[in-house]
Each structure stands twice: as C-alpha cells, then as structure tokens.
C-alpha cells in the first residue's frame, strides 16, 4: 500500500465520522443524555486527531502524483485548498469538543451553548469535508466533474 492508497482509504473517516457523531450529538441533545453528549464530544476529539495523518498522507500522495500526465494541477490545487480549510475546521471542532469535555470534568454538566456550538461546527465541518472529498474524487473521476 502506498501513500495514495492509504490516503484514499483514510479520507472517508472524517467525512462519515462527522455525520455520524453529529447525529449522535443531536440525539443526545434531544434525549438529554449526558452520557451520549460525552461520547459525542470524545468522538469529535478523536476525529480531529485522526485528521492529522489524513492531511499528511494527502501531502505525500500529492508529491507522488506530481508528475502524472493525467493530473489536472488546477483541480489538485482546489482540492488541497479545500482540504486545508476542512482540516482547519475539523481542528476547531476538536478544540470546541475538548473544551466541552473540560467543562464536563468531574461529572459537571456541559453548558448547552457549548454543545450547540459543537453541533454547528460539526455541520460546517461536514460540508467542508464533503466538498473536499468531492474535489478529490474529481481528480480521477471525470464522470463526477461539473461541466
């Protein structure tokens, strides 16, 4: 397995993870479950940590593909810029979730505003991650490119 393959395998984790953990947090807010809220916050912190190697594998994959004849360098630049924005938002989400965990230390309640901010950041992060995944897919899949 090379960097390109490894990157393609890993990059689904934050895209899908953000959706599923976001839904879990939404359910936790609806059900008023402190346990699910805490699990959701831990999940977002974990996704932020996982995003670090995904970003690095993307950089390595980019270097490996730099000389490929089929590669559209403009599309690659769009994908890299999109990945930078999505990763930055994921780190902010991880920090907000970590702050929520800090607020809830020792069995204290996490402030509702913190949880709603985390949920809003999760929605934005998902949209940025989905855009990044789509622009990455467009690198090799002509059938999904917009004309």
Which tags fit this structure?
mainly alpha; 82% helix; single chain; Four Helix Bundle (Hemerythrin (Met), subunit A); 147 residues
Structure explained in plain terms:
Helix content is 82%, strand content 0%. By secondary structure, the chain is mainly alpha-helical. It has five helices and no strands. The longest helix is centred in the middle third of the chain and has 32 residues, at 34-65. The relative contact order is 0.17. It has one domain (3-140): Four Helix Bundle (Hemerythrin (Met), subunit A).
Q: How many DSSP H or I helices?
A: 5
Largest sheet: none
The string of secondary-structure elements, in order, is HHHHH
Mind telling me the CATH class?
Mainly Alpha
**Overall pLDDT metric:** 89
Uncertain spans, ≥5 residues at pLDDT below 50? none
Structural class: mainly alpha
Shape: elongated
Distance between the termini: 33 Å
Q: How many domains, as an integer?
A: 1
**Proportion of helical residues:** over 70%
Radius of gyration based on Cα positions: 17 Å
Q: What is the strand content?
A: under 5%
């Amino acid at each position: 397995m090379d960097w390109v393959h490894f990157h393609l395998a890993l990059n689904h984790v934050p895209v899908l993870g953000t959706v599923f953990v976001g839904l879990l947090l939404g359910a936790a807010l609806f059900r008023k479950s402190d346990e699910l809220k805490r699990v959701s916050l831990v999940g977002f912190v974990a996704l932020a940590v996982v995003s670090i190697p995904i970003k690095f594998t993307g950089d390595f994959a980019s270097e490996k593909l730099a000389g490929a004849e089929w590669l559209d360098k403009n599309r690659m630049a769009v994908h890299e810029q999109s990945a930078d924005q999505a990763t930055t938002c994921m780190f902010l989400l991880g920090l907000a979730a970590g702050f929520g965990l800090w607020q809830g230390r020792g069995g204290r309640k996490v402030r509702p505003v913190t949880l709603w901010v985390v949920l809003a950041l999760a929605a934005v992060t998902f949209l940025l991650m989905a855009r990044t995944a789509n622009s990455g897919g467009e690198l090799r899949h002509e059938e999904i490119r917009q004309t």
